[in-house]
Every structure is written in structure tokens, then in C-alpha cells.
Amino acid sequence: MTTSTPTGRAPVNLRDPAQLLAALPYLIGFRPENSVVALGHRAPVGNRLGLVLRGNLPRGEDEVRQARALAPKFATGAHTGVTLVVVGGRRRPGDPPPHAGFVDELADALAEFGLPVLHAMWTAEITEDAPWGCYADPECGGTLPDPRATVAAAAATGCGTVAFDSRDELAALLTPRSPDALARRAAQLARLPSPPRPEATRVSDAASEIRAAFERQLRGEGPPTDEEAVLLASALTIAEIRDVCLAMAVPPHLPAAREAERLWLTLVRELPAPERAEAAALLGYSAFMRGDGTLAGMALENALEAAPGHVLATLLKAVLERGTPPEVLLGLALAADPAGISGFGLEPVDLDSFERA
Q1: CB within 8 A of 343, min separation 6: which ones?
Q2: Residue ranges of domains in the chain
Q3: Average pLDDT, the chain
């Protein structure tokens, strides 16, 4: 399994190995284990974080294949080099860090694209006082600081971002809350008239339903009822509504964008297939624009599982897998809402006031 994280997430110091290692959970969304993480350095001077890729440590016979699959992803995006991190394994006194052969394979594969390995490091795990070391310099190493005390952790916390203890814990966010509720809602959706709303008011009616969902969310009313879930599922199939929902992903640091992402995540858990694909694609786009490639990838896979061939999810997944930075897709949100009327009437200041209350 490989997950990618576009640029734009938490800030890290690429020149401080211990701080960089401790910041990894905030870069990829969860604490990696038995993983290789490759961090691209962006042009022009290489001190900006580019594409971040995480993969499971391969078996010996798969090292060359995985190295050759990973390296081309850094050929785009104006990278000047790559830092490699191996997480997992034990280092015996006097020996180099484990998986040195795989690091060499990665270096050879990256060199074919003119990309040097600027630093290659190992750590047993991402926890306070865990040992770490360097592959090129036996004198380089030490113990990790508390990951919660890094600059990346502070920045992520300020934005409301959580670093999960494992990938499985992050994936559990997308798990249906109630399979029985999904079955009831699927049956109700199948019985809806087509179209379910009068043509003259279908967009305004759907917009009112989305706005009502945000208001219920802000009041902390919990999951939607069956009737509310069915209406929301139907609303998200309307192109004009979906476009305004896309526009809510930017600027990603504003409270309105965070509240929108919370709603899409709730609906992924509350809507049946194939209807949940719309909410999952919106969640994928929102997470991508925020710089959370891991959650974005999971959401897009969820969308395509619910509705294979879903156009938006297919497009976004291809863009994510190429390591495209979020700013390249900013136009998708701006074009979706050229008049700047996103938010369904909920101004960012209103959401901010609610959070402070």
C-alpha cells in the first residue's frame, strides 16, 4: 500500500533529522510503522517540502520493483532531491541501520531521473526517545523528541488536524456508522420519484437542505435522520450543488472549509452506495486541498468503490497519484463558484464564532 501527500500540509525543517522524523505523523496523517517514507525537496533551493510518499517495507524479492515504482513519481513537480526514511526494524550495535539494501535500490532508481538522495535515515518507531540513525554516516543519530512537541504538531493542532496512531485508525473514520441505517436509506432512495424535486426549485431546495445540514452540525445534533440523509444524498447529485460544495474547500484554512469537510465525512459514513460516492469525492477534494493526501486517497478509493468510474473521483485519484500539488487544482474550486457565493449562506465568521463559544 502506498499513500501520497501533496504539498501544503504541516511545516517541517528538512535540515533537522530528528525534528523531521518526529513530524512524520503530521505529514502523512498517522504514525507510520514498517514503512518507507520518501520526501521530495522542491525547487528552486530544495528547502521546501514537495511530494511525500509512504509505502510498506517490501520483502527482499520486491525491493527493486517497489523502488522503480516509487522513483518516477518524483520526476514531476520540480523536485531537486529526495529524503528517504525507513521506519521499523532493529539495529544491532555496530551495524548499519536495517534495510540498507532497499535504500540503495531507491537511490539507484531515483538517480535515473537525476534526483539525488539528500539524506537517508532510519528510526525504529516514531515515539519519544526512539533511536534513529543515518545510512551514510555512522556517527549521525540520536533519539527522537516528543512528536507532539514539534513545530509540525503545533501547526497541525492549530488547524484542527489530528495525527492518528495507525493507518487503520485513520481508515476507520470512513466506516459506516450503522449498516442497518444504510440499508433503510438505500431502499428509500430507490423509491424516490425521478426527479425528486420540482424542476423550477430543485437547486434552491437542495441548497436549503445542505444549509440545514450545516446548521444541524453546528448545533451538534449528531447523525442525520433517514429522511435527512436521503434528501442530502439526492441534493449532492445536482451538478450546481456539487460545484458549490467543491468551492467550499478553499481557502482550506478557514473554519468554513473545515466544517464542510466534517459534513462530507459524516455523509460518507451515513449514505449508502452508490450515493455516498458524491460525498466521498467531495471529502477527497477537500482533504487534497488541505494537503492531507492520505485521507484524500482513502476517500477517493471509497468513492470509486461505491460508484466505479465516478468521473470526479477518477480524475482526482489520478492527479493525487501523480503527486500534483494542491494549487494546481485550485481552479476547480474557483471555476465551480466564480461569483464567490460558496457556503450556502454560512459565512466563515459565523462558524468561527461558533467554535469559540
Answers
A1: 248, 256
A2: 2-163, 171-356
A3: 84
